[in-house]
Amino acid sequence: MNMLQYCLLLLIGLELFAISGCQNKSDHQSKSEKKSPAKVSAIPQEANLTEVELTEQAVQRLGITTAPVEKQMVGQVRSLGGEVTLPPGELAVVVAPVAGTVQLPTESTLPKPGSSVKRGRPIFRFVPLISPERLVPTPAERAQIANAKANLISLQMTADGDMQQFQEQVTAAQIALNRAEQLLSDRVGSERAVDDAKAQLALAEAGLKVAKERKQVLDRLTSDVEKESATPIDIDSPLDGIVRSLPVTLGQTVSAGTTLFEIVNLEELWIRVPVYVGLLNELKTDEPVTIKIFGDNPADTTLTATPIAAPPAADPLSSTADVYYSISNTNSRFRPGERVSVSIPTLSEAESLVIPVNALLYDMYGGTWVYTRIDEHHFRRTRVNVRRTTQDLAILESGPPVGTEVVVDGVAELFGTEFGTGK
What is the 3-state secondary structure (H, E, C) of the chain? Predict the structure, then answer.
């Protein structure tokens, strides 16, 4: 073997050794990677997850407008619990004027409790028991008829007195209303006094109307007694509303004063708010309040109730005084006895971050967001904490710095673009 062959064999040996070493190293690395117990990745920040880039044409097509985040002095509110109640005069309890039998009205059906009825709809046909059904009545029937006639006379006297009393109340309420309007025109009275006088006059007129109707029915029954006949009476619903109860059945003979049915009008309800007496001077009880239903979606439309003049009431055991508000219930959203949250404005103010209320975006979990404008074409979804909202503004607990531009118009379109549901 010459020197050249010896050198070639040496080079081949070194190369084989190097290849073997690299392979062992690669195997060792693959084994070490498989043995890694965990892999930790960097968690991106929430604000960097939701950035949307639009072209100039897309910005114009979506109609995006912005407004700056501002700091303003806003009035504070106090959230208290309230109870939905029936206003006076919205519950009609119809009773039997005299002893008689309840029958089904002609060409009509008996409404079920919970069904809606209109004013004047016949509910029952009532046959007074003031004349004998047979030529020779039994002693029990004679006693019952005599008792019914005696009750009729008593009810007639009571109806006359009620009508005179309500007539005097109407006269006094009209005088009070004229005086309040004159004081207001002389700039020494208040609109609230005029409203209170109007409310008192309306209550008195409503009572007088019911008293007149009751007297007409009793006059008719008295005439029937004198004629020794008993003309059936159609008992109609006195107001529009819902049948609350029907405690009698068809064919039942009832005594005078027995409740025949109850009608309740739920179109307008009152909110009774018991307020600790030490807190009354800090609240603006003469301003509208915000009503929220417990568990309701915060994105739902805010409901507003207006203050009303109600009979003063207080509870000495809980040291609270009642404040009343009126709210429309045309969609039957509230029920008497239901508990709600009432936000009453206070006399104090504080500086807070505010944005237009239309800039708020609610996700499916109730989280609140806004889209901030980074530059002309970039928008970033940012979380905000909302303290409360008004008709125009959203007062923030925390959010973007003052001066940050937030999207007001086009929020829903940006949200759809971000999740691929927009056009």
Answer: CCHHHHHHHHHHHHHHHHHHHHHHHHHHHHHHHHCCCCCCCCCCCHHHCCEEECCHHHHHHHCCEEEECEEEEEEEEEEEEEEEECCCCCEEEEECCCCEEEECCCCCCCCCCCCEECCCCEEEEEEECCCCCCCCCCHHHHHHHHHHHHHHHHHHHHHHHHHHHHHHHHHHHHHHHHHHHHHHHCCCCCHHHHHHHHHHHHHHHHHHHHHHHHHHHHHHHHHHHHCCCCCCEEEECCCCEEEEECCCCCCCEECCCCEEEEEECCCEEEEEEEEEHHHHHHECCCCCEEEEECCCCCCCCCEEEEECCCCCCEECCCCEEEEEEEEECCCCCCCCCCEEEEEEEEEEEEEEEEEEHHHCEECCCCCEEEEEECCCCEEEEEECEEEEECCCEEEEEECCCCCCEEEEECHHHHHHHHCCCCC
Residue with tokens 């503004």: 393
208: tokens are 């007088």
Please report the pLDDT score of residue 161 as a whole number.
84
Sign of CA dihedral 94, 100, 102, 104: negative
Residue range 58-78: mean pLDDT, rounded:
87
Over residues 164-222, the pLDDT tens digits come to 888 888 898 899 888 888 888 887 777 778 877 887 888 888 888 878 877 777 777 77
Q: What is the pLDDT of residue 68?
A: 93
**267 — phi, psi (to 5°)?**
-65, -30
- Pairwise CA distance, residues 415 & 121, whole Å: 52
Long-range contacts of 215-220 (CB under 8 A, 24+ apart): 215/156, 215/159, 215/160, 215/162, 215/163, 217/97, 218/97, 218/152, 218/155, 218/156, 218/159, 219/156
> Is residue 276 pLDDT above 90, yes or no?
yes
